[in-house]
Every structure is written in C-alpha cells, then in structure tokens.
Amino acid sequence: METTVKLYSLPYRSVKTYLAALLFALGNIVLPQLFHLMPQGGVTWLPIYFFTLVGAYKYGWRVGLLTAVLSPVVNSALFGMPAMAVLPAILLKSLLLALIAGYAASYFKRASLGLLLGVVLAYQAVGTLGEWAMKGDFWLAAQDFRIGIPGMLLQVFGGWLFINRVIRK
Fold first, then answer.
1. In 3-state terms, what secondary structure has residue 22?
2. What domains does the chain contain, in order, with CATH numbers?
3. Are the CB atoms for 126 and 96 separated by under 8 Å?
4. Rounded to whole angstroms, how far apart are CA atoms 78 and 142?
5. Where are the beta strands (DSSP E) in 8-167?
6. Whole-model pTM?
C-alpha cells in the first residue's frame, strides 16, 4: 500500500530539526512506559524504536539520529530501562534505524509498507550482528527476531500509518 506523502530532510541548523527530534524523543519516552506495563512489553513490542523510525523517515536522518540517541539515554537515566547493560546494543540499533530509514526515505521518496518492512529488517539484521559481536551470544542477540516480531510489525504498519496518515504534511 502506498500513498503520496511529503518527506523532508531537515538540516542541523534548523530549529525545526531539534523541535521534531524533541517531540519524537518524547514519544519514545512515553510509549515504552506504556508497553512496560505489560509483562515482557518492551522486548515484545520494541517501543523505543517506533518514533525513531517515524522521525527519521518523515524528517530525515538528522532528526532520526537525535531521536535515536536521546530516547534510550533519557529512558535509561529516568527509568532504568533500558538497563545499562543493554544500552549499547539499543543505541546501535537505534542509530542504524535512523540512518537506514533516513536513507530509504531520501532515495525512494515514498513511504510504502514494503519499504518500511525493508528498513525494519535491515536495521534488525545488521543490529543483531553488531549485538552478537558486542555480547558474543547469538541467541541473546537474536532476541528481537525470537520475541520482538510483534514490535517489528508495529513499526512497519504503525509507522506507515503514522507517516502517511497522522503526520502527512
């Protein structure tokens, strides 16, 4: 499914970049708190990545990178989630997501379900390899593919809905 939507690539010198990143980071702070109310909500639904995907795809990789760093660090500092032990892996995946989503949006200039699926699979696959290198445990590194499928689907379908319908302009 595809629709025409305006995609941006905001520069670092623009105040809009920082305002957008702040709003998306806030979303990435509130959403995980809601999902952490259910057992295994964080590892199942992967909510810390949702607004990083949306921000990077809609407003460019710079907004994505700011959101990708700010969200997990603030969440960890305020709520202890993600735990310090997993923060490097989450930051790696967040940064990969921001870069891949921003690149896909600027290259393809559209937001389709297929493209978002490709973005999510790409950052997860590369991120899993990076996490495996960090931790030396493939089974642990592949946790998102074992437990987080609902979260990846939320990113694809929810991200498409958010980009194409909620913040269309």
1. helix
2. 15-166 (1.10.1760)
3. yes
4. 27
5. none
6. 0.95
